Amino acid sequence: MDRIPLIGQEPVEGAIQGYVIKGVTHAQRSFRPGDWPERLTGVITLFVGERRPGIHIACTRLAMPVVDAGTKCLFVSEELRAVCADAFDFVMRFARDNDLPVETRRAQRLASAEVFGEEAS
């Protein structure tokens, strides 16, 4: 699982605005299956069509599995709302339907141009 620093709300150069979907329900139960962030990233990748040649896993600059305070989470970039509103609505509905907390956060931009194309740098 990728680890990108989540940095709260303070302005940081190069940071991207987004949302963290936590893998612990409001009732404090761990969400299962354990690979849910990777699976949801794969679904988002299908929505936005960002499959890359030579990369055998689903990945997109718009959503990334992360670990926050020892909890598996999914960071979803605010940009997803503009790029594919249906994907954004799907992932937020997923969080609501599964009682998963969503926090507004910032993350450092770590995507490389080789993986995600020139627009990601």
TrEMBL record:
Gene3D superfamilies in alphabetical order: Uncharacterised protein PF12112 family, DUF3579
Q: Which domain of life is it from?
A: Bacteria
Q: What is this protein called?
A: DUF3579 domain-containing protein
Q: Which organism is it from?
A: Paraburkholderia phenoliruptrix
